[in-house]
Amino acid sequence: MLAEFPTATEALTCAVFAQKTLQEKNHSVTDERKVEFRIGVNLGEVIVDRDGIYGVGVNVAARLESLAQPGGICVSESVRSAVGTKLSLTYEDLGRQTVKSIADPVKAYRVHFDPHIQKRAHRSRRALVLAGIAAAVLVVVGSVLGTLKPWERGVEPEPGESIAYTLPDKPSIAVLPFTNMSGDPEQEYFVDGMAEDLITGLSRFGGLFVVARNSSITYKAKNVDVKQVGRELGVRYVLEGSLRRGGDQIRVNAQLIDTAAGGHVWAEQFDREVTDVFAIQDEITERIVGAIGAIGGGRGKLQRAELERVSQKPTESLQAYDYFLRGIAHIDRLTKENDLEARRLFNGATELDPDYARAFGQLAWTYMVDLYMGFDEAAESSLRTARALAQKAIAVDPTDPWPHWALGAVHYWQGEIDQSVARYEKALALNPNAADILAEFGFTVSMTGDAARGVSLTRRAMRLNPYFPEWYSWNLGIAQYAAREYESAIKALGALTIEDVGVHTWLAASYAQAGRSNEASAEVQKLLNAKPDLVVEDAISGYMAESLREHHIDGLRKAGVPEG
């Protein structure tokens, strides 16, 4: 069971109550009918929506549960600090624990409680109901005792079970980062490029559900249990592999694993010249599609036309491809220096191959990154350049989704809304699994008046990319405000860690519309501390439909932002 609470104290109160109640009931039943829980409690950021509860906070809670003893409770340092002396409990310091899929060691505490202390039952029972924005996440795993002994391995989750997700209604897959077997760290970008290109190719099949690269990459350089990966990402299949590059030769090992059954569906080794890298990617893609289609009783059999479209060779120049992969390694870092280096590398790729559409598309995005991140104040010049590069990429290869996305963003920035929506629609038709495009399109349609669709698109993006970046939460919060879902907007925007005037603007309006005047006033004060001369009219920026603009202004006025 996964539950979410408004405070750490309520979560831990519930956990203690549950364990005391089970201990009492276990005294009066036979061994084969006894049940014990292991409980983990963490304080952290999560996102809650109708599809589930997810985020890093959930993953840490799940790891704490695995550290707990049967009948016991394990909490994070953040919970220990937040609860303090509010509850009559003692804590045993377990030190920093290295756990799967979490980059940094987690400091954990074992909770000791007196089972005879009177329980505060009414509040604790009520706390079991899922509530609002996550302050604390509690994960409970129960084991029936009797034939299973507490000191033996606990009950494994059922095949396909996920902590936070149900399996999609189509074949679902995550491509894990490939292992670099070359013995040369300088080849890391090339190895990462193999996994990224496979994700790109597979995600263009509408009949598959493919987890985004941002989430898959979190498992890089980790010893992973593919069953656990399947549960964490909510997928049936996982592809893992390795790549060794030596001179002009490469060796690629790949294996497709069914996370429910735990067995290999398909595995193969490829020994080729490095110039055959695209052919290897095509073969792996085709084998995956064929294997999943066969298992799914035809459900995953995809059109030959789609396979042919995916297998189009992006460039004849291996050096241009090398520049492209090096550029990709820089562009996601979102710093001015990395953006300029990515631009230099993409320029190098297009000089070597003037018909390299993907390189032109990514080059266009370096100029959009300038605008989004505020690296370049010459907005009109950047927009003109991005538009020209995206149009060039589309002219060379109209089947590549990324330049359509870039051009859609350009149109939005320039207030060309119909053209923007059309480009986003085209990009998603070419790549239905593109989480970033879905999230950005969700923002666009929300700002242009279709809030319900904006919420739906952004939630789909979050499901495809469980370890989503913070800007997804920003987009979701604005979409929910536009949809009049004020409490949900507060949850999403309140989970952001970035300090930005825009966040306080939307939070102030959301609190005010929700009738929470004290919180609204606090956000307005943060706004005025950052911009003492701020007035309502100055707090509204960017294109938005007139109805949303009026709604936002109304919220800011209710919150107490001064009039001009």
Description of the structure:
With 564 residues, this protein is of the alpha/beta class. It has 22 helices and 14 strands. It has helices at 8-27, 56-67, 77-83, 121-127, 188-203, 213-216, 226-233, 277-295, 304-310, 318-331, 336-352, 357-373, 379-396, 401-413, 417-430, 435-447, 451-464, 470-482, 486-494, 501-513, 517-530, 546-559; strands spanning 2-5, 35-43, 47-49, 52-54, 73-76, 90-97, 106-112, 136-144, 172-175, 179-180, 209-210, 237-246, 249-258, 264-273. The strands form three sheets. The protein has a six-stranded mixed beta sheet with strand order 1-8-2-5-7-6.
Taken from the alpha-carbon principal axes, the silhouette is globular
- Distinct helical segment count: 22
Total strands: the figure is: 14
Q: Give me the Rg, rounded.
A: 26 Å
Beta fraction: 15-25%
Residue runs with pLDDT of under 50 for 5 or more positions: 116-135, 143-164, 294-303
The average pLDDT score comes to 80
> What's the assembly state of these chains?
single chain
Q: First CA to last CA: what distance? A: 51 Å
Largest sheet, spatial ordering of strands: 1-8-2-5-7-6
Helicity, in percent?
A: 40-55%
Quickly give the structural class.
alpha/beta
